[in-house]
Each structure stands twice: as structure tokens, then as C-alpha cells.
Here is the input.
Amino acid sequence: MEIRETGKEKIIAVVGRPNVGKSTLINRILGARKSIVHDMPGVTRDRVYFDAQWLDRKFTLIDTGGIIPSHTDDKEGEEGQFLTNIFIQAKVAMDEADTILFVVDAKSGLSPYDKEIANLLRERKEQVVLVANKVDNVAEIGNISEFYALGLGEPQALSALHGSGGVGDLLDKITSDISSGDTLEEESDVVKIAIVGKPNAGKSSILNKLLKKERAIVSDIAGTTRDSINSGVKVGEREFILIDTAGIRKKAKVDYGIEAFAVDRAIRAIREADVALLVLDAEEGLSDQDKKIAQTVVDSGCGLVLAINKWDLLKNVQTHNFEKELEQEAPFLNFAPKIFISAKTGQRVEQIFEEAGRVADERAKRVPTALLNKIVGEATDLNPPPSVRGKHLRVYYTTQVRAKPPTFVLFINHADLIKESYKKYLTKKLREAFGFFGSPIKIAFREKTKEGK
Here is the structure.
């Protein structure tokens, strides 16, 4: 059996006509680990990406809108455009997937739409697994026989709603080529940098400066999209991969079609990068759209460096005053390093590699468990959260469950004592103790009784 390349997370798209239970199946697979990676309104309205895990195997799930192929041409006006968009979005999801789960409704039976979708899928090179959903008991197994006519092999019978049938068998099948989670986190000194920001902030100019002729070009690496090339460069003894992305505009200004998909690919690039270089226009300052892009980076767990471009155009403005304004406008970005650059003149552009490398190292950092528990214990003793109905917080144990980004789990007695403000307090204390400069920190809480300790 062939095992997938280390560090390349498998992508599984879930497709089918409307109301066959695609989202129910995804929720069943995700369980309590549901984590929306990106659901930015106006960018990918008809498909959503999720991080998922089965046993120790990690992969990405894509939920798509219901496909009605023949109706994409029949309908006119907004309804026709809506159906066309869903169809195109589903096709894009299938294009980037390694495996496609084609979900059908065993209770309502074989539909003409199922046959049309099957015709599309038979032409594809990706693994296609036919899933017969809504088989709620053994007596209904016979309902799946008619789906053999689709020519996609044996249907996997299950009930996504009840979790019965072959859900586990299905997950075993679609994850059999994924190496363990421990292997996926093997250390690599190559740093992937996604250059992101609004249109015309100077992203491509920065890329061109970074790829100056005298620099050793390691390779031109085909990106995850048809229209971008990720450039590999070596700086000193360290290698970097630079990913240029489309400008991310406000949702009201993004049309469906090529631009929407380019924006979507930019957000996927953030997910795949070690560090995002968010390019700001110094003359415009920090806009609401910049904040939204930055929040997307933070939510994805990617490292962050702010590059304030066109600094040469500002006169009589000191960097520390500009930084102070940024801290007031967006305090959630205080952890990120800021570089004041000019792509036009080359001012401080070289610092991008240094800062990105440092942030990547901080993001990959692991801390000793004994020291971690000491720091968390001191933080909670110094400033415990307010008691609720006589209940007081007790932290039994803290552990770092992963790096990239640093992720911690606190085993506690009462989860309802933890509010968002206290989570921010603990994050601040972890930064003070361990740095993690430029990297988001993830903290989760697990309730545990003293006896279950």
C-alpha cells in the first residue's frame, strides 16, 4: 500500500445531490473535534473546509453544496446563477481532492441526479467511494442494491444520523493511505511563507524583491493552484518557499468565478503555510479588511509577520508611533512582529526572511511538561477565575498536545468557570514564559473529575 508524502494532508471532498445527508456525515466524522478552518462569507459560500482526524490520521474534509447538474443550464436569473455557482464550487472541491465521497440517499432510492453526478465522477482519476446513507437498520440493507447501477463499485451502507452501519469501516478505507499524526509533524527546516493582503498593497513587488537575480533559486514548485508558482529560495543555510496570492477584497466586491476562486486559493495558502506575511499599505494604515485577513491567519494557526509596505512614502512618521496605533486598533495582533519596508527601494525587505524564520521556529517550539505545569499553576494561583455557585477552578494537569501552532490542553474540574477573558489571560502568561513570538497559541479545556485524574 502506498503511503502519502509526509506533511501533505489528504483532502477528502463530500459531494452529492441536495438533502442526502452530506453535512450530517461530516458532522458524524468530526464529532466533538469540529473545527471550521475557514468559512469567510462571500468567499466560499458553497463549500467549507474542516480539519478531521480518524485514530491518529489527520485529513481535511470539504463540505459542498448539493449538486443538480442538469439544472445549471435550465434555470435563468439568480436561481440559475446560484445553481451554477454550487456546481462550479463542487467541481473545484473535487479538483483539489484526493478522495471523493459520493453520498446517495438509500431511503429515497436512486435519482436521475445521482446518475448524472456518477457520470461526472467516472471520468475522474481520484478515488471515488460511493456512500449509501440513511440505512438506519439491517432490514434496509437491501435498498442499496440499485446503486450498483452507477458503476462506482460497492456502496458503503451506513447511517450518518445514528452513527450506525459502516461509518468506521468507511473511515478505515479512506484513511488507509495516511501516515500517523506523529509522522505528519516531522520537523522540516524549510519555511513556507504565504504573502497575503488586499489588492495593490505591494505583494508581487515584495516577491520580486525577495527573488532578486543574484539569489540562489532552488526550484519552481508547482502550487496547489493552476495559476500560481511557489518559488523556493535559499538564504544562508535555510530554505524558504514563497507563495504569492491573490488580493483578498471585501466580500461585497468579490464576484463569483475566477476572482472568487483565486481569493479562496489565497486562504488555502494561509492554511498550508508556516508563516503569513500580511502586507499593509503604510499610507492607508490598518483597514477593516486587513483585520479580517489577519484574523483568518490567526484562526488558521499560521504564524504572522506584518509588513508595512510603502514606508518610503511617509514623511515625519516614526515607526514606534505607527506601532502604537496598530496596537490600539488591533490588540489581538500585538504578538506579531512588524517590519517597515519599501518594496520599491528595497528598504528592510531582507528582514522578511529573518523574521519569518524566527516566527516559524517559535511556532514549532515545544516546552517541557514540568515547566509548563509550573507556569500554569503559578498563573492560576496568582489570578484564579471568579467562582461560580461556590465552585472554584482546579487545574489537574496541563500538556502541550502539538506544535505548529503550539496547542495546550488543561484538564480541569469545572469548564464553565473558564471565560474568554481568562483564556486570554492564560495565553498572555504562556507568551511571557515561553515566547511563541509571531505564532498563535491554541488552548483547550477538558473537564475531569478528581477521581478520573
Observations:
- The longest strand covers residues 47-54.
- DSSP finds 13 helices and 18 strands in the chain.
- The radius of gyration is 24 Å.
- The mean pLDDT is 80.
